[in-house]
Amino acid sequence: MYRFFVEEGQIEQGEAVITGGDVNHIRNVLRMRPGDKVMVSDGKERDYCCRLKEIGCDRVIADILEEKPAETELPARLYLFQGLPKSDKMELIIQKAVELGVYQVIPVVTRRAVVKLDEKKEEAKVRRWNKIAESAAKQSGRSVIPQVTVVMSFKEALTFAGGFEVKVIPFEHARGMDGTRQEFGRIGPGMDVGIFIGPEGGFEDEEIALAASAGVRAVSLGRRILRTETAGLMVMSVIGYLLETR
Ligand code: SAM
């Protein structure tokens, strides 16, 4: 069943009103007809099974048949703080992280991040990254569209994660998996979890020390060196496996 996202205010009195680019998609790409069923999400972790009623030029009105809590979200909110990678790796990372249940992706400028974005470039990149997040959310049946935030400095990212219950920074020089298992084992429903991944060049020792002073624990992901685009997805996969409820 096709899924569409609306703002909370577009759900009222037993109807869902779909607007924007989705209207053209419903009319001209999917060629849907009144009577067809769709899933609508309001981004607040509520899902609405609906039947199309009116397909207009700039809005589609659907009757709500059933309302239920979102079934596809992880019980904890995972925030991926991704050190800016080279080329278009960020697009792959975002797409896969959304499929794996990420709540938010925060691009981070770290000491060894070689990519430098000026304001204009950053704006365009963040817009594109959010489009990729939306498309991946639709494809994977998410009930929310994870947001890709503006680019943060490492210090801003640590402050942003200040109140999170669990915060890890995978570091290839960390030894042993006990600490990793311990941290991941602490994650529970309703928690905010910060995952800090370095760019291709990794983190500097000073960054690891700064993270430690902010309560972010350095953990090992094993004895092999993972690429930046692999490391975050591995962490998301492991945490997803631990948290998935069925
Ligand atoms: N300094 C690394 C090297 O020697 O090639 C490069 C960093 S790695 C490509 C990118 C990021 O992935 C690291 O900053 C870290 O966050 C994570 N990472 C990769 N392998 C890891 C491992 N075995 N344990 C913990 N983190 C790892």
In total, the number of strands is 13
Distance between the termini: 21 Å
Order of helix and strand elements from N to C terminus: EEEHEEEEHEHEEHEHEHEH
Percent strand: 25-35%
C-alpha Rg, in Å? 20 Å
Q: How is the main sheet built?
A: 7 strands, parallel
Instruction: Give me the secondary-structure category.
Output: alpha/beta
- Runs in which pLDDT lies below 50 for 5 or more consecutive residues are none
Judging from the principal axes of the Cα atoms, what is the shape?
elongated
Oligomer: single chain
Q: List each distinct ligand once.
A: S-adenosylmethionine
**Count of runs of 4 or more consecutive helical residues:** 7
What is the residue-mean pLDDT, rounded to a whole number? Answer: 95
Helicity level: 25-40%
Topology:
Layout lengths: L2 E3 L5 E2 L2 E5 L1 H9 L7 E5 L4 E10 L3 E11 L7 E7 L5 H11 L4 E6 L9 H22 L6 E2 L3 E2 H7 L5 E5 L7 H8 L6 E6 L7 H9 L3 E3 L8 H16 L3
Parallel strand pairs: 1-4, 7-8, 7-12, 8-9, 8-10, 11-12, 11-13
Antiparallel strand pairs: 2-3, 3-6, 4-5, 5-6
Helix pairs in contact: 2-3, 2-7
Bound molecules: S-adenosylmethionine.
Write up what this structure looks like.
The chain has 246 residues and is of the alpha/beta class. 33% of the residues lie in helices and 27% in strands. The protein has helices at 21-29, 89-99, 119-140, 154-160, 178-185, 205-213, 228-243; strands spanning 3-5, 11-12, 15-19, 37-41, 46-55, 59-69, 77-83, 104-109, 147-148, 152-153, 166-170, 192-197, 217-219. The strands form 2 sheets. Strands 7, 8, 9, 10, 11, 12 and 13 form a 7-stranded parallel sheet that branches. The longest helix is centred in the middle third of the chain and has 22 residues, at 119-140. It is elongated, with a radius of gyration of 20 Å. The mean pLDDT is 95. The protein binds S-adenosylmethionine (SAM). Residues 170-172, 174, 197-198, 200, 202-203, 220-222, 224-228, 231 line the site of S-adenosylmethionine.
